[in-house]
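So, who can interpret the following?
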Amino acid sequence: MSALTAPAPIARSAPVAPGGDSLGRAGEGISLGIYEKALVTAPSWDAFLAQAAEAGFSFVDLSVDESPQRSARLAWSASERAHVNAAAHRQGVQLGGICLSLHRRIMPGSADPAIRRQAGQVYRSGVDLAADLGITVLQIAGYYAYYEPDDPAARDRYIDTLAEAAPYAARAGVVLGIENVDGHDIASIPDAVAVVDEIASPWVQVYPDIGNIAEHGGDAAEELRRGEGRMVALHVKDVFPGRPRRVPFGEGVADFDGAFAELRRQRWSGRIMLEMWNDDAADSLDRCVQARQFIDERLTRAGLAVIPPGPAPL
């Protein structure tokens, strides 16, 4: 692990937006977190999560993806779940969310009823894992049936499977946040809002990815405006058209300034996760610090308060 010490946080008292209008409501602000795939594989959860604290982040978002290692987390024992929770508390970082991208393979909108039943179980298992880890937002991917041929009926099947999961999530107190993805299904925030409106549950909301808006050529400020009042957390990453991953912050086409100005207009507060894939690079921690500083500076310039990390809540 790098011995890099994160620089002192930028002063954040009374951030001022363009035009001189400072934030006025007590408690407003943004917490910054990091995706687990930005961090280096470590021999223990303590060592792994310590990287996030060292890089100056408040939380880590975990992944339950198509890989055997991460999909197996849905079957963690109670003691394994307690161990991860305890490690987060010891390291002073929160477990912010779970990215449930396993649904790319186990498809909620599949034409096969057996696969849809499995997808429903993935929802329930993901909700259980989130609840046991003290996580209140389960990010779900907006892919209908990723590995199947295009089918106009896939959207309706996707909505039916998700709607069946919503009451289970509600009883557990876990919000299901739909991500606008880099594919062609739920490809925009308005697409996600349309699904939210059809399901009509307060436990199904929108989890925007600002990078994916740019990858599709969308207008970040306009899409975020369409999601106002529905956005439970956000992802940020940089992209190029046709290249939605592994673009260093500041080198791609994502409109962070426009996006953050719209968040300022909404007086949006919450969690923003920096989505990165550093592939166990030796300088991963340095990259994370540089990315955090990049986003922190732009949020502050937009007049949004960035809340420095604090102790993990008990």
